[in-house]
């Protein structure tokens, strides 16, 4: 690009304002906690994009930086695919459901960061941004001059969050990390599955999701500190660290006892009865969390004496787990699931059915809370956060690849001819 039209000289700071595409009057009138915050989301797949989506839901302007040819890896992770309605008679690219789960509330700028012009664009955007999210391998962005140190030299107030498999330091820092592998290395799989079966991963990439949540907490804390110091931060977040941190009670069971926990399948290592049971026509889950609840369960099952003696306390029930569970199972198997659930509900005994996902989205409570919705014709799952009774879910759908390239670059001060040249040379889409 011509020096006179360099984005660094063309009002890049304008990117800190504005709202997301398709913003409705209702959303515009609502208080959005991160209004005025600009995020460059240079991450891919799930953990980083999950953080970016949450920040976007909370009101930040999130500019998703993608490769102009292939975009986010998850754009190709189908089927299933969602085919949008034609726009002005032109077919809209199909989008993988996986991509759609983590990229709401963003603008897509498709730019080749391996090119000198692309690097100048990113640096100009970073100069006016508040947060950068990235999940490149350690040192991967340094070759382009887009690493945390380089960007914070341009903008000392910038908060950069680097998400990697193993962190910025340590003997594994150079390795790539994926959720499944981290669940294995971080101990979660050793806790999941039947005692006599193969260790199992979870049905959702939970380490990635939790990492996205920790990333959100980290960047918001860094923004809060910046109010006092004026300085940004480099947040170093590792999937392995997150997995170890979220072992929760199982981690402390190990550290306190010195013994590796065994797998309990659908049971709980510390609470009894707290597991799945078979009924005549299906399964239910009992989650009896205290002695009073157990006493009510014992009465329901026709054995109030269970609330005394060996089974009176949770410690006793854990010690006599095998006998007690067999007794409960023998009674529940003789009745229908919905009967037992209704009786538990009436007595304040925590219990629930094991739903398939279609059943989840048909559940009256889930429907009442509006957890499944469509945004511009695209299926979405709502943000669970509510502020003063209003959902925090943004009202604009995940973007098509490069959908907002012209808008973002124009706001940076680039001319139509500059944008056309960059597109012609394959630097943007």
From TrEMBL:
InterPro entries: CoA-transferase_III_domain (IPR050483), CoA-Trfase_fam_III (IPR003673), CoA-Trfase_III_dom3_sf (IPR044855), CoA-Trfase_III_dom_1_sf (IPR023606). It comes from the Bacteria. SUPFAM superfamilies: CoA-transferase family III (CaiB/BaiF). GO terms for molecular function: transferase activity. Keywords: Transferase. Residues 1-29 are annotated as: Disordered. This is CoA transferase.
């Amino acid at each position: 690009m011509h020096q006179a039209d360099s984005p660094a000289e063309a009002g890049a700071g304008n990117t800190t304002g504005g709202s997301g595409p398709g913003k409705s009057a209702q959303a515009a009138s609502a208080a959005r906690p991160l209004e005025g915050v600009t995020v460059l989301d240079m991450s891919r797949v799930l953990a980083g994009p999950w953080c970016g989506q949450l920040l976007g839901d909370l009101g930040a302007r999130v500019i998703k930086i993608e490769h102009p040819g292939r975009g986010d890896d998850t754009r190709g992770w189908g089927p299933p695919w969602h085919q949008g309605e034609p726009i002005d008679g032109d077919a809209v690219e199909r989008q993988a459901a996986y991509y759609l789960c983590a990229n709401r509330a963003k603008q897509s700028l498709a730019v080749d960061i391996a090119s000198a012009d692309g690097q100048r664009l990113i640096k100009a955007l970073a100069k006016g941004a508040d947060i950068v999210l990235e999940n490149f391998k350690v040192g991967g962005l340094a070759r382009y001059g887009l690493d945390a140190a380089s960007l914070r030299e341009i903008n000392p107030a910038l908060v950069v969050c680097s998400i990697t498999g193993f962190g910025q330091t340590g003997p594994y820092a150079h390795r790539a990390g994926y959720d499944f592998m981290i669940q294995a290395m971080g101990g979660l799989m050793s806790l999941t599955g039947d005692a006599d079966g193969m260790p199992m991963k979870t049905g959702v990439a939970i380490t990635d999701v939790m990492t996205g949540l920790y990333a959100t907490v980290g960047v918001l804390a860094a923004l809060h500190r910046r109010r006092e110091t004026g300085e940004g931060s480099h947040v170093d977040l590792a999937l392995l660290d997150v997995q170890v941190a979220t072992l929760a009670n199982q981690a402390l069971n190990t550290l306190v006892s010195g013994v590796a926990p065994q797998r309990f399948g659908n049971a709980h290592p510390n609470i009894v009865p707290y597991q799945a049971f078979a009924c005549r026509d299906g399964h239910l889950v009992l989650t009896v969390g205290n002695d009073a609840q157990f006493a009510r369960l014992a009465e329901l099952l026709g054995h109030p004496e269970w609330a005394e003696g060996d089974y009176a306390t949770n410690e006793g029930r854990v010690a006599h787990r095998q006998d007690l569970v067999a007794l409960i199972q023998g009674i529940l198997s003789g009745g229908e699931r919905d009967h037992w659930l209704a009786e538990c509900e009436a007595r304040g005994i925590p219990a629930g059915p094991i739903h398939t996902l279609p059943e989840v989205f048909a559940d009256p409570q889930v429907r009442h809370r509006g957890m499944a919705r469509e945004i511009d014709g695209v299926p979405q799952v709502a943000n669970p956060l509510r502020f003063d009774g209003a959902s925090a879910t943004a009202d604009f759908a995940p973007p098509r690849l490069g959908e907002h390239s012209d808008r973002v670059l124009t706001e940076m001060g680039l001319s139509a001819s500059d944008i056309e040249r960059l597109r012609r040379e394959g630097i943007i889409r």
